[in-house]
Amino acid sequence: MHKIKERIRNIASEYLKDLIKIRRHLHANPELSNQEYKTAEYIAEVLRNTGIETETGIFKTGVVGIIKGKNPDKKVVALRADIDALPIIEENELDYKSINKGVMHACGHDVHTSSLIGTAKILTELKNDFEGTVKLIFQPAEEKIPGGAKGMIEEGVLENPIPDVIFGQHVFPEIDTGKIGMKSGKYMASTDEINITVKGKGGHGAMPYALVDPIVIASQIIISLQQIVSRSAHYNMPTVLSFGKIITDGAYNVVPDEVTLLGTFRTLDEEWRADAHKKIEIMAKSIAQAAGGNCDVFIDRGYPFLVNDENLTQRSFRYAKEFLGEENVENLEVRMTGEDFAYFAQNVPACFYRLGVKNETLGINANLHTSTFNVDESSLETGMGLMAWLTIKELDY
Fold first, then answer.
1. 8-state DSSP, 231
2. Catalytic residue check, 142
3. Residues 21-64: pLDDT tens digits?
4. Could you give the C-alpha distances from 366 to 94, 112, 166, 282, 383, in angstroms and in order?
5. Which of 82, 84, 90, 330 is catalytic?
6. Where are the domains of the chain?
7. Which CATH class is domain 192-300?
8. Is 379 helix (H, G, I), strand (E, B) or coil?
9. Which of 60, 168, 224, 397 is deepest in the core (most CB within 10 A)?
10. Any idea what DSSP says for residue 320?
11. What is the DSSP string of 129-164?
């Protein structure tokens, strides 16, 4: 295994320049969820040119590649990368800045995709050195509920062949390039979208006695619902309830008839998740009715919480330390962000880990989902090399 480890490192180093070009092409040409047609075409072309058996059109824009080693039926390892971008106007001044106005790879999916392409190239060169099969999953629509993972699974992506385990990788601007982070067990939260429409009776702001003010009611609902987090959630049950948008159509002295509230609810327990949904609906409706109005509550169930398989992740910790050195593998904390990779983890033993992309010297430290997000591109060498090493080690396990 030592010789294979060194070969992986050498091949990853050789491919870095090519992978940077691929990443920059993807970054300059981002596409939104469920619209990744050109991205999928590009991925499929690169895979086929590498000699990889490739299937397209899974959940419209999903792409799957198959790499068979010796004795391909022995074991199957799946590797997943998401390919969609976000509706954000890029403010970086780069030669490869997004040419699609209002669309940006601000979550690093260009890195995930190019890194997996690099891993595929490495494993193709090494396919006579391992037993089993590698399934490459390039997944659309991670950023939009119900998520491309769910759609691809429903269309059979986890069949023919059936993976024994699956790995996912995500950029992480909180740790330095050259490092990665992992956490076994519960790692990321479920993500539900809260939609509340408060209905009252609008009119002139100088005549509040003649109104049922939906703005005041909506304000009371927002504040009161925080009791679900502060008073109903158990102390060891991480919970987030946040509202990010209030929509109405009034004026300085005009009170509207309706106010719409948009928010997110997140947790890591299905029983509590269902109970909290009921509490949100009952409390919101009761407050509105007590004030003389009413409200509609619709909770769009999003991704489930993400659980990393304990055994697979503990093995992966060891594999990563062998490849990167113990000082470059960090233990992560629970995060209340969400990921539709959770659907894969519900069906197959999974390990979803983080790839460091920060470089303070180069001024690369912006957060995900921001207009100035960027990565230290040398992280691609770590990303493709480590994933190839994890794959070969797991196939040999």
1. I
2. yes
3. 999 999 999 999 999 999 999 999 999 999 999 999 999 999 99
4. 15, 17, 29, 40, 19
5. 84
6. 2-189+305-395, 192-300
7. alpha beta
8. helix
9. 168
10. H
11. S-BSEEEEEEE--TTSTT-HHHHHHHTTTT-SSPPS
Banded pLDDT at 393 (limits 50, 70, 90): very high
Confidence of residue 235 (pLDDT cuts 50, 70, 90): confident
- The number of residues in the chain equals 397
84 is catalytic: yes
- Structure tokens given for 342: 């959770």
Which of 142, 213, 381, 394 is flagged as catalytic?
142
Q: Quick one: tokens of 314? A: 């503990």
Residue 42 tokens read as 């590009």
Q: At 252, is the pLDDT very low, low, confident or very high (cuts 50, 70, 90)?
A: very high
pLDDT in tens, 161-196: 999 999 999 999 999 999 999 999 999 999 999 999
Residue 232's SS3 state is helix
Under the banding of pLDDT at 50, 70 and 90, the label for residue 1 is confident
Strands (DSSP E) along 200-288, which ranges?
203-204, 239-247, 254-255, 258-267
**107, 35 contact by CB (below 8 A):** no
CATH number of 2-189+305-395: 3.40.630.10
